[in-house]
TrEMBL record:
Ranges where the Outer membrane protein beta-barrel domain occurs: 20-181
Record InterPro entries: Beta-barrel_OMP_2
Domain of life, source organism: Bacteria
Protein's UniProt name: Outer membrane protein beta-barrel domain-containing protein
Organism annotation: Parapedobacter pyrenivorans
Pfam family, one: OMP_b-brl_2
Amino acid sequence: MKNTLISFIFMFAILDAHAQRQEKIGFGIQAGWSMSRISGDTFDGKAGFIGGVHANFPVFGSFYVQPEVNFQQLGGKYKSDAYVIGDILYRDAELNMNYLGVPILMKYRFNPIDLDIFVGPQVGFKLRAKNKVGEGETYEAYHVKDTDIAGVYGLEYCLRLPDSRVDLILNARYTTGFTNFNKGENPNMPNDSYRNNALAFILGIRF
């Protein structure tokens, strides 16, 4: 009986140490490439940058919550017949928007392979919105709202580096806009509603 009790205590200690190792709070930084796409027929896709910081909090079992703060470039290239000022038709025009995105991601981890699936809401705060025409002329895009609501979902793989406290993070995500960022009527924005969508591939490290 005594040996059995000692064995149970020993097993509990091992499991508790393992759980503590697995349940640590992680902090990380990330950066990557995104391809944004604005809904409607006015724009083509546009490449941009995404990068920021995150914290990874264990909740229970294999469930985690990961809040992030990211700088993200969104926008699109106007199609050749979509950008007109007066009687002038511009063929090389872009809508460039910079946002501070704050997603709250709910994650589930498949522990044997350290693969996470995640989904969550995101609030984007507009930092800048400008129309670029030709080689460098820029105009303030007053029709872009100050906030943007979206949903984020994707996959994340954690590569645990041996003999290190640093984990390498590989992340692929898609952002779907829920709200119309266009306010008021604008001759360069003929559709009633526009939403930001973006595919992103991100590389990061977590401590």
